[in-house]
Design goal:
By secondary structure, the protein is α/β, with parallel strands linked by helices. Helices cover about 40% and strands about 20% of the residues. It folds into 3 domains: about 15-310, Polyphosphate kinase middle domain (polyphosphate kinase like, 2-Layer Sandwich); about 320-495, Endonuclease, Chain A (2-Layer Sandwich), CATH 3.30.870.10; about 500-690, Endonuclease, Chain A. The strands form 5 sheets. Strands 10, 11, 12, 13, 15, 16, 17 and 22 form an 8-stranded mixed β-sheet that branches. Strands 18-26-24-23-19-20-21-27 form an 8-stranded mixed β-sheet, with helices on both faces. The protein has a 6-stranded mixed β-sheet with strand order 2-4-3-7-8-9.
Length: about 700
């Protein structure tokens, strides 16, 4: 490998480029109006998490001493400055989309988000009654006094800063009010004309009624603010102590962590902004302007008033009869089965657990849980199985960011039901998505497994695009048994993994070997090709291997949804690498690796992105696909995505997110819609065979 620095896009700058692709969906006029509003909400929520974790990390790096910072491959001050510049530009565009496009379009469709100044007499009476009846106990008016103890602002909570004039002392004062969106709906429906649907945000109900809360003051104006706090738990590298207890303590501290961002209304006067910065001890890297409203994820809950034409046409998941009718284990024993959510029903996965819980032949159930639905039939099936006397073992990763608390609660419920629960390893995340069932047939054990790119989460299965495989193939099952042995005992299995690629064992080295094999084939004049579908590509060593492969003549095609630190089409490095990203109604979550291997394609589905954390600090799996039909299906699915000329964007060094293959003369080809119809044809073929 070359010692010369390779061209790489800093990961957080690349992530901001991804989030801009989400914002592009919000301004796309071909996207139904309420879906555009949802993309604004997703963009906003993504950014909040980004600041709580990534920006908080950079701010901590800035505080390091010069000697320590020299060990970094970048200057955190420069990265923070670039982030600030990019985010501010995006926020201006966000506000423009919302104010000058979304709001007028909603109005054209009879949905009116009104300010207090736009209300009629009946509506004013309504919000005044609503305020006194429902909101008064929660707004908590406080005076902000210079040099006095500042009030504590809750993480991500909404506040109004009030600019006032003290009539008695003849002084300008500032006050603060909490907007109780954590207790009440953000949107309140108003009395409306017959053909109209008027709504007001509770922010503006507080604005209208604030005069009564500050007697003796003249209200000049009010401005919305929100404080985002550092959410990182800083436990990834701790190798001693009770990890679960550390996480519980960290969760208590999370909402009182140091401020990582003050979001403020762009109309806030400079003098007031300076006062806020001094009051809450914030520096220039901590201040970010936004529009009139914050916590825009709440716009996901905007009432639709039955206006179905403003939403996406439903694509109902397809039933899969071989696994949803009859004995699921007999069907799996007969052949491997692919599950592709959300196009196909998730019922097959749920039934895998529910049938196991009810089947008297089942002796053991084992599963890894990374993220779990709050109401989960899968978890209930595990509880039922344990209570019926089956041996049930669940590994719960309690370091799944922002799901730690939910996972701990599920762990406690499972333990109370008699499930053997194992928790996280210090310094190492378990990101595997797999389960196994042991059945005893005529005295002989049979193992059935499900290996997936996605979590066992009934909620995300409706919107995350993932691939999973059900199998009784011993090439899988023997190694899944070894994997669970390691997770439960933390002892290295005596036998090596020869089929599954497993993080901490053979994943990274095997991937490197496969790239080197393609390089060798290219140098011999043989066809050589690599296709990767990932959420993120950031690992510098793997990027260097891909650059080397490109220079050797290997054709490389990438589909990367999020971070892509590799720079495609860079002269002297990556002329043979083409990369696209797809953002559409479903979140592209599946990871797929394809290596040409002299025409005998090796296809893997995986839980692992090509990031340092996945390849070096996690237990992951990459699953080889042996079934010929399933292998062909996955390759055809990738081909559909590379033909997208509606939602695909080209990834390049400019990070401009230009639409890929866009040509008004071409027939629109939207890969997620085409995937749905492709899977429908495949499912119909399977159903016909099933009927025959």
């Amino acid at each position: 490998m070359s010692k010369t620095p390779i061209p790489i896009i800093q990961r957080d700058i690349s992530w901001l480029s991804f989030n801009y692709r989400v914002l592009q969906e919000a301004k796309d006029p071909t996207v139904p109006l309420l879906e555009r509003l949802k993309f604004l909400a997703i963009y906003s929520n993504n950014l909040d998490e980004f600041f709580r974790v990534r920006v908080a990390n950079h701010r901590n790096l800035v505080r390091l001493g010069k000697k320590t910072k020299k060990q970094l491959h970048f200057l955190p001050e420069e990265v923070l400055s670039a982030i600030l510049e990019i985010v501010n530009k995006q926020q201006e565009e966000f506000s423009d989309i919302f104010q000058n496009d979304i709001l007028p379009s909603l109005k054209e469709n009879g949905i009116n988000i009104k300010k207090g100044s736009e209300l009629d007499a009946d509506q004013i009476a309504f919000i005044e009654d609503y305020f006194s009846d429902n909101m008064l106990p929660f707004v908590q008016p406080i005076l902000l006094l210079k040099g006095k103890i500042k009030p504590f602002l809750n993480n991500n909570a909404l506040y109004l800063v009030v600019d006032m004039f003290d009539r008695e002392l003849k002084l300008v004062r500032y006050g603060i009010l909490k907007i109780p969106s954590d207790y009440l709906p953000r949107f309140i429906e108003l009395p409306s004309a017959e053909d109209q649907n008027d709504i007001i945000l509770i922010d503006d109900i507080v604005r209208h009624n604030m005069r009564a809360l500050f007697p003796g003051y003249d209200i000049n104006d009010s401005y919305s603010i929100k404080l985002t706090r550092d959410a990182e738990l800083y436990i990834d590298d701790e190798y001693s102590g009770n990890l679960v207890q550390k996480i519980k303590k960290g969760l208590i501290k999370r909402n009182v962590g140091p401020a990582s961002r003050l979001v403020y209304d762009r109309t806030v006067p400079k003098q007031l902004l300076k006062f806020l910065a001094e009051s809450f001890e914030l520096g220039p890297f901590d201040l970010f302007l936004e529009g009139r409203y914050h916590n825009n994820m709440d716009f996901m809950k905007l009432p639709s008033f039955g206006k179905s034409h403003l939403k996406q046409t439903d694509l109902p998941p397809m039933a899969y009869p071989p696994l949803e009718e009859g004995n699921i284990f007999d069907a799996i024993k007969e052949k491997d089965h692919l599950n592709h959510v959300p196009y196909q029903s998730y019922e097959s996965v749920i039934r895998f657990f529910e049938e196991a819980a009810a089947d008297p032949k089942v002796s053991h159930i084992k599963a890894v849980q990374y993220r779990v639905a709050s109401k989960s039939r899968i978890m209930q099936a595990l509880i039922d199985a344990a209570q019926s006397g089956k041996n049930v073992s669940v590994f719960i990763e309690v370091k799944a960011r922002f799901d730690e608390e939910a996972n701990l609660k599920w762990g406690e419920r499972l333990e109370k039901a008699g499930v053997n629960v194992n928790y996280s390893f210090p310094g190492l995340k378990v990101h595997v998505k797999c389960a196994m069932i042991r059945r005893v047939i005529k005295g002989k054990p049979e193992i059935y497994t499900y290996l997936s790119t996605g979590n066992f989460h009934e909620g995300t299965a409706k919107v995350y695009s993932d691939l999973g495989i059900f199998s009784n193939d011993k090439r899988y099952t023997r190694e899944v048994v070894r994997l669970f042995y390691f997770l439960e005992t933390v002892k290295v299995p005596k036998s090596e993994f020869k089929h599954l690629l497993v993080g901490q064992f053979n994943l990274r080295n095997s991937l490197e070997d496969k790239i080197l094999r393609e390089i060798s084939n290219a140098k011999k004049g043989l066809p050589a090709k690599i296709i990767l579908k990932l959420n993120s590509l950031q690992d510098a060593r793997m990027i260097e291997f891909l650059y080397e492969a490109s220079q050797a003549g290997v054709e490389i095609k990438l589909i990367v949804r999020g971070i892509c630190s590799l720079i495609p089409q860079k002269k002297g490095f990556s002329e043979n690498i083409n990369a696209i990203s797809i953002v559409d109604r479903y979140l592209e979550h599946a990871r797929v690796y394809v290596f040409h291997n002299k025409g005998n394609d090796e296809v893997y589905i995986s839980s692992a992105d090509w990031m340092v954390r996945n390849l070096s600090h996690r237990i992951e799996t990459a699953v080889p696909i042996y079934d010929k039909e399933i292998k062909e299906t996955i390759i055809e699915l990738l081909g559909i995505q590379f033909n997208d000329n509606v939602k695909a964007r080209s990834l390049n060094h400019k990070t401009m997110n230009e639409y890929y293959n866009k040509d008004e003369s071409k027939i629109p080809f939207q890969s997620q819609l085409e995937t749905y119809y492709y899977m429908k044809r495949k499912t119909d073929e399977i159903m016909q065979k099933y009927i025959d």
